[in-house]
Amino acid sequence: MELTANVNWASYALQYDMLFQYNPFYRELHREVMELVKNWEIPHGSILADIGAGTGNYSLSMAELFPQATVLHVDKDPGMNAAARSKRPVSLTNHHIYQVGVDEIELASDHLSGLISVHALYTFPKPEKVLRQMYDWLQPGAPAILVNAGRMVNVLSWQVAIGWHLIRNHGLRRALEIMQLGKEVSRQNAYIRDMQRQGIYWMHSHQEFCEAVSRAGFKIQSARTTFRGISDLVIAVKPTTPTS
Ligand SMILES: C[S@@+](CC[C@H](N)C(=O)[O-])C[C@H]1O[C@@H](n2cnc3c(N)ncnc32)[C@H](O)[C@@H]1O
Q: In the chain, where does DSSP find H-type helix?
């Protein structure tokens, strides 16, 4: 069975960036992650990766931030990747789109100088296996920022919060138009909740996520909840000597 049969990432891709444009919590998370990525010390010639990179909101920012490095934007969905490609300035030659399912990624051990994955692990068929792969791909001492949605969205509370934000910033009439335009986003998010309910998409508490990251071998430097409490953000490093 195709595990993501219900969630149509290609349809989602067409409107995915409405999140960036209009969802203040998506923007806030982007800011939070990029503030952390900015602290990385990345030598010339390094390779960085964004796993489950979607429409490229993070991978493109990373490529701009680190012109001395190559950024691998890894995602299996052609629609998501096409959206990323369409936003990529011609001058951004260090951004590479690698269209592949997470199970088929071929990266050598100790290849990456840094890695992020935002809201993608929960969609993968074997997220703990992917965490172990991420650990393997990173060089000893290299950082990882791992964000994952582990709890189900309370639809009403999110609609109210985003609705207020839209009304404040755009007025009632435009807010209603934007909500109408965002129907595909809502539809795909409803499919995501279905997959979570069925136990097909990974759900976890904050502690369970941290434990999974540690089990993969990472040393956690700090961890917190984010995205209105439904997601977990872990700042981790591949230790220079493996944990037993
Ligand atoms: C919710 S989106 C997150 C995108 C991006 N990280 C962001 O936060 O904007 C999840 C992404 O995971 C990708 N994805 C789902 N299953 C995948 C798999 N098996 N291999 C690679 N990518 C996958 C989807 O195509 C989608 O772009």
A: 9-15, 18-22, 24-37, 57-65, 78-87, 127-137, 155-170, 172-181, 183-197, 206-215
pLDDT digits (tens, 9 = 90+) for 230-242: 999 999 999 998 6
Which amino acid is located at 226 in the chain? T
In 3D space, the residue among 96, 230, 62 whose CA is nearest the CA of residue 152 turns out to be 230
Tell me which DSSP letter residue 111 carries.
-
Phi, psi of 191 (to 5 degrees): -65, -40
Instruction: Indicate if ligand 1 lies below 6 Å from the C-beta of 201.
Output: no
- Please give the Cα distance from 219 to 2 (Å, whole number): 33
166, 172, 175, 180 alpha-carbon torsion, rounded to 10°:
150
Ligand 1 pocket member 119 (CB < 6 A): yes
Q: Which atom in ligand 1 lies closest to the alpha carbon of residue 29?
A: 8
pLDDT at 4 over 60: no
Which domains are assigned to the chain?
24-151+201-237 (3.40.50.150)
